[in-house]
Amino acid sequence: MITFPCARCGRPVSRTVRDDPRRIRCPRCRYLIYDYPRVCAGMLVVKDGALLVLRRGHQPKRGFLDFPGGFVDANEPIEVAARRELREETGLTVGAIEPLGYFWDRYYLKGFGYFPTINYYWLARWRSGTPRAADDAAHAEWMPLERVGRSGAPLAWRHMARVLGEVRRRVG
After folding, report:
1. What pLDDT, in 10s, does the model give residues 108-161?
2. How far apart are CA 123 and CA 44, in angstroms?
């Protein structure tokens, strides 16, 4: 069980995993919140049969393969967040993009535990530039699409295999 201070009164509260949706209720002030999903956005960039992948530079999942992406900021359009994350993590910008879809997963935050995420992705074709790892990416590289997820390098998140399937279906 994970405990943390109530946002209203500061008393320790616990997250339950049995409720659906998960409820967090303070025993003192009865403040109630639901464990709503956090929104994430990412960009899959293809170039001549290769996909841009990153190695995560921080926990969780340090060293695992990841796609450029991250959490959406408050009041930020999701597509804008995907473009921002691509630029922050690789220095690249892209032109026209097409939506790939959304994929459910979960994310671990120390001191809070797992929370649900809804991950929106877009597909882009590379135009120019050399990706340079920055922000929370330790390394950026072009990997042949058929090797991503099969090369022995583990994917950071469970939903990424489904995202790759959709990219392979569309790109060929």
Report:
1. 877 677 888 999 999 999 999 999 999 888 999 999 999 999 878 899 999 999
2. 5
* Residue 140: strand pairing partners: 54
> Average of pLDDT values for 2-10?
85
Domain that residue 129 falls in: 38-171
**Same domain, residue pair 71 and 16:** no
Q: What is the pTM of this model?
A: 0.85
Contacts of 25 (CB under 8 A, 6+ apart): 13, 31, 32
Whether residues 86 and 13 fall in one domain: no
Q: Mark whether 71 and 7 lie in a shared domain.
A: no
Q: Which residue has the tokens 């939903």?
A: 159
